[in-house]
Design brief:
Length: 133
Amino acid sequence: MIDVNELLEIAIKEAENLMDAEIFLLKDLFKGYENLKVAEIARTALPPILESGRIPAEIITLMQTKEYSKENFDLQYPLLVKKSQYATRPVRYMAKPILNIYGEEYYLCSEWFEKPGANNDRPYLLRWIKDNK
């Protein structure tokens, strides 16, 4: 399967060949996240970034804490938990994908919300993705 970053590079190169009348189609295609729920964005966008090796191991360790996850993703639970620490998948964590980061398997938090006002995780997630692509 093609990596999302490779796909983006191909798309950018192809965009150079677009005619003016075709630009609106490209904009529509790359709205992408607008129509996805925040948990689906997390499920699809985080694994390639976290599994790429670009995120330092120290940050992966911090992502297993409530404090870091609250500050950076506005989550109420750690973003990641090690699969090896549980006999069965813990409640509040996704069954799939199971992430393989630095040789360890992790579950990804499933408790993402986007309620207007007090509990909206979407801007935190999108900012983190933008900063770490």
